[in-house]
Design a protein that fits this description.
This protein is mostly helical and 310 residues long. It contains ten helices and no strands. 85% of the residues lie in helices and 0% in strands. One of its GO terms (molecular function) is G protein-coupled receptor activity.
Length: 310
Amino acid sequence: QHNVTSYGITTVAIISLETFAGMWINAFMVCVLCIAWVKKKILNSNEKILLLLGCSRFWHLSISWAYSFLSIIYPNYLYVHPILQLVVFFETFFNYSNLWVSACLCGFYCVKISNFRKSFFIYLKVKLDRIVPWLLLLSEILALAIGIIAYDITDKPHCNNRNSTGQGNFWKASIKMDKHFFPAFFIAGFGYAASFMAVIYSAVFLLFSLWRHKCKMQTNSMKSFSIDAHIRAMKSVLSFLVMYSINFVCLVLNMVYVTKKGSHMTFLIVVFQYTFPSVHSLILIFSNPRLEKVLRKVLSLQRSVKCKVC
């Protein structure tokens, strides 16, 4: 019992550090974009996607941290109807909102920057600013539908255990919930796979477009701004692709180690899954000139304040 308790405390401590760092990064991104929105009275399509992505990740990290904290430290307060169902619903909703809005961002980079001359790509380029709000709305509707399904799956084990308050009945309810892990993971796998395929296609199209453009520019000694735009977009898409692949592997491993609460593999899976929203948002900040400029100002101001205090 002592080993399990120490493992839980260590896990909560590391999750808390990662969560608060990720919340700060995404809150910074949201605040900067909101201030720009108030000043300019309008946001471009890229900023709309980043704003919604930052909000989704902020709330996803907040709810995931609350779920992990309660499930490890105070499980008796979590496994009570309807607290668990509501937590699972909101966590699932913001998680899939995060995934699909990220996939929309990759698709946006692909269409906006690629230089294909096909009529379909030209049509998408012309209509892109009108398509983006509808894509974001569709992403949120799909995330809401998956959240409702997850709520329904989580609610089933409690139909016969709503009056169970004893420790023995609590463990019976937990055992019955294991039967519903596989439908939940099937839904999660479908969501990951759909957004993962969108990211892969975006990366492949951007790479092919960059290769074609470099072939055309070989005879031109002048620097091409289009190549620079391709490279910046590719850094964001490829970084997301690498972290997305790690996240997908963690999902598969989570299905294998879901019943092994105190294993080291479970601990590594949790660490990777909480690192993903923070690191990718930081990459997006440094790939955006406005966000990077404001972040450098904030860090330099903080450094100067520390020097004056010292």
